[in-house]
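Exam revision sheet. Question 4 asks you to relate a sequence to its structure. Input first:
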Amino acid sequence: MDRLEGIKIFVRVVESGSFSAVARELGTGQPAISKQVAALEEHLGAQLLMRTSRSLSLTEAGRDFYESAVRLIGDLEAAESRIGSGQTSPSGVVRVTAAHAFSRLYAVPRLPAFRERYPKVVVEMLVSERTSNLVEEGIDLAIRNGTLSDSSLIARKIGESAIVAVASADYLERRGKPKRPSDLDGHDGVIFVSQDGPRPWTFASRAGLITYQAAASFRTNDGEQLRAAVLAGLGITQAPHWLFAADMGAGTVRRILRDHEPGKIAISAVRPASRRQPSKVAVFVDFLAELLADEDA
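Answer key, structure tokens:
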């Protein structure tokens, strides 16, 4: 048994809470992962994990060994980077969850630059409009917009984006350009639908922030469909700047009601507080922060 590899696998099993999640991450079968952990337990002469059909939990010996193993792996990665003067490249799979539109339109097209910089890191992008359970699903990182309320997560703000009202140039030529929120009456809205229902728009006014529920011509829970509907001339929407940045640059979509924009929202990279941050995750977070620093909103 490769003892170091067994220790790394044991740590990932504890952090993900699942043998199958680690197997998916490493591109192997669950029995192979179970065998590695069992071999480590045999070598140590102690049971590290309590296994049931539904869950895993650390034994007292397992918790002691996990804490030491995390320090060992962290020290090893730091030493490799330090001794190699930055030449030792991070490696492994980074499992990331993000909204479909952000992944396909913004992050994925820029991955060749990341791949050139870190050829040993594989990004596994899991798209979802819902909030994933990072621990249960074995996810290293989530990209989330707006206010975060989950105290079990560690968040790093990696950027921000203006919330903009937009419509296609064709739509505005046909229906006219609103100059104030009250001008939206009679216009068609392309509305994002969350788990709580149709999401109202927010605008700044002299009295503070106000909300407006537009009459919908189309509703969706997917950012790309929202963009497609606006490009098709179905109406006005309000969305993060990055979603329409290329279209606004090309002139096919126009930004409206700029004097009434509600301000910018934070874009954060979040990870479980109970999990260490491997170098492969840290470099990917740094890369995303570089991309968002260039966001001109």
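Marking note for examiners. The radius of gyration is 23 Å.
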